[in-house]
Amino acid sequence: MKLLVVIPTFNEVASIGAVVDSLLVLPVDLEVLVVDDNSPDGTGAIVSRIGSPRVHLLSRKEKAGLGGAYRAGIQWALDHSTFSHLVTMDGDGSHRAVDLAAMLLHARPEIDVVLGTRWMPGGAIENWPRYRQWLSRLGTSYARWALKLPFRDLTGGFRIYSRSLLERLRLDAIASDGYCFQIEMIRAASSAAAAMVESPITFVEREMGQSKMSKRIVREALIHVSIWGLQRRFEINADKLHYVK
Description:
This protein is an alpha/beta fold. Helices cover 40% and strands 18% of the residues. The strands form 2 sheets. Strands 3-2-1-4-7-5-8 form a 7-stranded mixed sheet, sandwiched between helices. The chain has a two-stranded parallel sheet with strand order 6-9.
């Protein structure tokens, strides 16, 4: 197993160095790809100065959405044939390297996706106000009902994907830009009959910087999930035809 950890960033200068360092000391074969959207705070420059051959920087010209950053990172991984698995995680310190080590225990050859899950036994949230917890729970509950998916944390971004699954998907059909991208990826994986398991994580709210959550992101997710739910119920644009090569 060889991992590529993809970390999208925008103004994460206060945390990105520590996040990368915490990954490089794990006793696993991994490399890190930071996908930076031209952060004005110099996040990209910090990554460039790390100077490790295991750390790569993919610079984009402007801030163009979380989904676009992940699509670029996934394509970069597929263009480099050495990686067997791709990990997605945040660059603000909310996702912990110690949880990645536990998630890797579930990444058996027959498993396509390991979802880092906050809302399951052993999972936890630190430093989130109650309204944010309820918003996340409500969003996942609605998506589970609308899309008929069984997973308990559809909006989380801490995951492990197998290369074989990513090669079966049509990335160009996964079009969401915001946090809805996380839901759409699991919808796509489900359409490809992927084997998926959940692993508990502790999500730690950032202590520095600003959250990227906004009303526009919430609205995008609500609209898209509602449309997808109706399509599923009326068998319009069947998921398999839409997402699978």
